[in-house]
UniProtKB/TrEMBL annotation, chain B:
It is a multi-pass membrane protein. It is found in: Cell inner membrane; Cell membrane. The lineage of its organism: Bacteria, Pseudomonadati, Pseudomonadota, Alphaproteobacteria, Rhodobacterales. This is sn-glycerol-3-phosphate transport system permease protein UgpA. The chain crosses the membrane at residues 12-30, 71-96, 108-128, 205-227, 266-287. Part of the ABC transporter complex UgpBAEC involved in sn-glycerol-3-phosphate (G3P) import. Probably responsible for the translocation of the substrate across the membrane. Keywords: Cell inner membrane, Cell membrane, Membrane, Transmembrane, Transmembrane helix, Transport. InterPro entries: MetI-like, MetI-like_sf, UgpAE/MalFG_permease. It comes from the Bacteria. The complex is composed of two ATP-binding proteins (UgpC), two transmembrane proteins (UgpA and UgpE) and a solute-binding protein (UgpB). CDD domains: TM_PBP2.
Length: 333, 293
């Protein structure tokens, strides 16, 4: 149980800055998800917390204790890696017991702790197997078990689900969430998948090119994005962006409107567009329309509505409240 | 995934195998057969005629104290060469593995000695340690150490071991480096987070994961020390002083071509053949079981 603080943390590789001053205050027991596209520096940030990368400037504190210079082992953290990073030559039991053995924990306590973790993760039948004899989901659980048995102050997850197939990913996502609730351990979770971010996070951090663009509760971030990047990155299908002038808005540069906030009508409203193609997903339908100057606009509507046929001209309408206006610098106005 | 090609007839596969079979037959089976045949004869002192003696050559060899001493010498020599060349190579590979800048240059420089032929390497080392003109011997002299591998048996053994290991380090280094780099970074990092310091990580993670490479190199290096070090020994010590560096292969040569006892020489070859066969079988049977995966 611990708090985690990042205070103006920066990282440069030679002359290249990859992290431009990140500030985060993580409360005890909070589940924080860092989400962003590839190369935004989110994994680097996590590895800096873990102690696997140096910190160029700023300070990282675990439980208000500066850990910048501390070795990974001294930080009392546990990390779950994307490729699980299990020790291939050790049994599941030994994989989980490794850290405890090094810490010279008494044998019976090791056995007891591993047994508890194995029960929690339904790994009991596999304790004597080698990692290569396990499925992807089971390996993932072993990696989690290895983190749990050490009773760390902070869990770090580095895209732990991205090597699993879609169905397993949904299942493991739920399990991770439940596990974290049950154990109440402060967690930092890195992912590029916004669905994982939305579903897992108590608060999420959207990162863009080494900067934390926005920090907040998932729904807050979704409903009220502070930058153009966040508005475009969070939400699927992505927000439609239009030049402010083209739709009669006098301030700012760009206006973003989420696909579900646009209504299609036959009678004239704001803009006219031609239906390019439709994607009927069952519960909902994505209608892609082309504006006269060529830009594609996506509209999300209920699956019960009749499918507009391709090539018909329709009107796009929305409430003023649905418009998110962004300035030259990409910031929300 | 292994891909297998299935041929319809037997002609094409036979044709494809032919070059390898011909080479093996001419350069391996034929000389081996010759050696076995010759090992049952004793030539007269002038090499004019030979006399069939059956297993007499073998009987004589096994009772010969010089031959038995050569066994011990070979064991010491190949043991040392293997340990030295693999130990140094592993150490250098660990350093190179941690290197980020300039690793290409470092690697290239380390690989160079492998391109030097054993006999040339032998001459190089012989000149460096030459008791009269050798640079190293001269500096050792300044330090008050009287280097003389021509007389001192231990120094002679040390020199041929170093000279034989030197070129071999490159080869072993390459394999160790590849082996180290095949270990996923994240596994090492996971161990670091689990609290393992460098040495513990090496002992519990790196070394076991490296064991297939180590095992392979062990076999290859022992065979190398047995057979391919002839050039080094011939140029540096010629088996001396007092036969202190006469390993089995060198004895095959000196008894056969210097001593003109072709029968005994052939018998020694046959013994070597059997020995290396056994060694390989033993290594694969017993050591492989301890290889982790």
């Amino acid at each position: 149980m611990a708090t985690l603080t990042l205070d103006n943390v920066r990282k440069s590789f030679g002359a290249t800055d990859v992290i431009h001053g990140v500030d985060i205050d993580v409360q005890d027991g909070e589940f924080i998800v860092i989400v962003g596209p590839s190369g935004c520096g989110k994994s680097t940030l996590l590895r800096m917390v873990a102690g696997l990368e140096g910190i160029t400037s700023g300070e990282i504190r675990i439980d208000e204790k500066r850990v910048n210079e501390a070795e990974p082992m001294e930080r009392n953290i546990a990390m779950v890696f994307q490729n699980y990073a299990l020790y291939p030559h050790m049994s599941v039991f030994d994989n989980m017991a490794y850290g405890l053995k090094i810490a010279k924990t008494p044998k019976d306590e090791i056995a007891a702790r591993v047994a508890v973790a194995a029960k929690l993760l339904q790994l009991e039948p596999y304790l004597q197997r080698k990692p290569r004899e396990l499925s992807g989901g089971q390996r993932q659980r072993v990696a989690m078990g290895r983190a749990i048995v050490r009773k760390p102050a902070v869990f770090l997850f580095d895209e732990p689900l991205s090597n699993l197939d879609a169905k397993l990913r949904v299942q493991m996502r739920l399990e991770i969430k439940q596990l974290q609730r049950e154990l109440g351990v402060t967690s930092l979770y890195v992912t590029h998948d916004q669905v994982e971010a939305m579903t897992l996070a108590d608060r999420m951090i959207v990162m863009n090119a080494g900067v934390a663009d926005q920090i907040g509760k998932p729904l807050e971030v979704y409903e009220n994005p502070q930058t153009e990047f966040v508005a475009g990155f969070i939400g699927s299908p992505a927000t439609n962006f239009m030049p402010a002038g083209s739709i009669g808005v006098n301030v700012g540069k760009t206006v973003g409107i989420r696909p579900e906030h646009i209504k299609l009508t036959d009678s004239p409203t704001r803009l006219q567009a031609r239906v390019a193609y439709c994607e009927a997903l069952g519960a909902e339908t994505l209608v892609h329309l082309r504006l006269p100057h060529g830009q594609l606009i996506t509209v999300r509507q209920g699956g019960h509505l009749p499918l507009p046929s391709e090539g018909t001209d329709l009107w796009l309408g929305w409430d003023d409240a649905a418009m998110m206006v962004f300035g030259e610098d990409g910031k929300r106005i | 995934m292994e891909k297998r090609v299935i041929f319809k007839g037997w002609m094409l596969p036979a044709l494809l195998l032919l070059p390898q079979i011909v080479i093996t037959a001419i350069f391996f089976f034929y000389p081996a057969g010759q050696a076995i045949w010759q090992s049952m004869f004793v030539p007269d002192p002038f090499g004019l005629k030979t006399q069939f003696v059956g297993l007499g050559n073998f009987e004589y060899l096994l009772g010969d104290p010089y031959y038995r001493a050569s066994f011990v010498t070979t064991a010491i020599f190949s043991g040392l060469v293997t340990v030295v060349s693999m130990g140094v190579a592993l150490y250098l590979a660990i350093l190179a593995d941690r290197l980020i800048k300039g690793s290409g240059t470092y690697r290239t420089l380390l690989i160079w000695p492998y391109a030097v032929a054993p006999a040339v390497a032998g001459v190089l080392w012989m000149f460096m340690f030459n008791t009269r003109v050798g640079v190293v011997a001269w500096y050792l002299g300044l330090l008050g150490y009287d280097w003389n591998h021509v007389l001192n048996e231990a120094e002679a053994m040390g020199l041929v071991v170093v000279a034989s290991s030197w070129g071999r380090i490159s080869y072993n280094f390459l394999f160790f480096l590849a082996g180290l780099q095949a270990i996923p970074r994240s596994v090492i990092e996971a161990a670091a987070i689990d609290g393992a310091k460098f040495w513990t990580r090496f002992r519990t993670i790196v070394w076991p994961l490296l064991s297939p490479t180590t095992f392979f190199l062990l076999v290859v290096n022992v065979v190398y020390a047995f057979f391919e070090t002839f050039g080094v020994i011939h140029t540096i010590t010629a088996g001396g002083p007092q036969q202190a560096t006469t390993i089995l292969v060198y004895k095959v040569y000196s008894d056969g071509f210097v001593g003109q006892d072709l029968g005994s020489s052939a018998a020694q070859s046959v013994i070597l053949l059997v020995l290396v066969g056994l060694l390989t079988v033993i290594q694969f049977k017993f050591i492989e079981r301890r290889v982790h995966y």
